[in-house]
Amino acid sequence: MSTTSTLRILVAGGGIAGNAVALQLLRAGVATTVVERADAPRPGGQAVDLRSASREVAERMGLMEGIAKFQLHEEGLNLVDRKGKDVYRMPADMFEGKGPVAEIEITRGDLNEVLLTEIVSVSERLDYRYGEWITDLTQDESGVAVTFASGGTERFDLVIGADGVHSATRRMAFGPEEEFGTYLGGYMSFFTIPTPKDGITPGWMTMHPVPRASVGIRPDGDPVTSKAIITLRCDKDPALRRDVAAQKQLISDMLAKAGWHADYVLEAMATTPDFYFDELERVDMPTLNAGRVTLLGDAGFCGSPMTGMGTAMALVGAYILAGEIASSPDDLTAALARYEAAIVPFLDKAKELPGGGLKMMLPTTEFGLKAALTMGKMMTLKPFRPIMMKMLEQTSDYVLPTYRA
Ligand SMILES: Cc1cc2nc3c(=O)[nH]c(=O)nc-3n(C[C@H](O)[C@H](O)[C@H](O)COP(=O)(O)OP(=O)(O)OC[C@H]3O[C@@H](n4cnc5c(N)ncnc54)[C@H](O)[C@@H]3O)c2cc1C
Questions:
Q1: Which of the residue ranges 68-77, 82-91, 233-242 would you say has the lowest mean pLDDT?
Q2: Would strands 204-210 and 76-80 be described as parallel, antiparallel, or unpaired?
Q3: How far, in Å, is the centroid of ligand 1 from the Cα of 403?
Q4: Do residues 373 and 361 touch, judged by C-beta distance below 8 A?
Q5: What global pTM score does this model have?
Q6: Which of 19, 27, 343, 384 is 20 to 30 A distant from 115 in Cα terms?
Q7: CA 324 to CA 301: how far, in whole Å?
Q8: What's the 175 CA to ligand 1 centre distance in angstroms?
């Protein structure tokens, strides 16, 4: 019979999902190995929102003290035209912290640091390996034999694939990405730039859309630096996947002559230390479990950064998965089934794209853009604010399961 102290679990991926589940497993006394393909924690990412259930999870996991140290104080969202003139503003308090700027905002990289700091404090049963990944999985009824890139095969009771939207674990245990992923019509990029001296209001997220593309600048907690946010609407080009030069070229082409601070951002992009670019993809799995392999975070349920819910889904999923494993360590099949049953109702809502997705966000013509901006402006009017809040708080009625501390 397995107990939490005899289980051995492998987590593939040291992002928010992988680190959050590792933390909870370690706290439950489970020997946990994490393999992260990068050579060190990956920096980068703009502000991620913690709302309703994900905020509750952060509180229950005791992360709030760490989060408070990095918490961003964003004043609101400002849409500007090519000359930098306000089209409209959405102050955070206009939506009681339930609008585009959530009550709790922290950059993805800082949240990962909070998790890693907590992990170190319960590291007794931890084996954390950077620059490592799985090359092969063979499972039987009682466990999984895993071969690693560095050579060698080891046995685990369970493998958790938390290796992101292009998950290799998913490919090995469930099938190719094309079976589960849907291209949502574009790409997003995030990277750090020096804060421009003028043309933005400090503390505000400023966005400038043009047909098919938008460029934004968002505070990141350090007055000297900011995060650039780029969104592109275009056909999928598989050749872009690993070609950073081609990714940057596409951004430059689509934002050429965009006005406002676009040229400044494009220049800073050339030397940014943490360029991130990926296609907007939704991942829908018919099931999250295949024997002794389960999926967590973007690997199993990605709605794309457009939902603003990727980190929320990762945190809530990690909390439930670890909670269920700790509830029945001697029956992992039942634990995984309960994990899936509990998280799916949350995912169904969290994956909904607020406001119709890229088509509404980035129209292809000047006329369409004007109409979209007029709609956005309308949402700032009192009678329409509840509509906006409802769109962004779609998971607020989700009831989070409770587990023993
Ligand atoms: C650098 C970075 C910046 C991001 N910025 C934003 C942002 O600004 N806004 C936003 O909404 N979302 C962003 N995301 C996505 C966001 O982090 C996720 O949607 C959400 O937090 C769920 O995280 P995840 O852990 O499931 O996936 P991810 O955050 O993608 O983490 C997956 C981890 O697995 C690692 N990995 C990949 N393949 C393997 C493998 N074969 N073996 C082992 N490890 C592997 C990756 O290096 C990564 O550390 C970013 C992701 C990354 C990696």
A1: 68-77
A2: parallel
A3: 26
A4: no
A5: 0.93
A6: 343
A7: 18
A8: 20
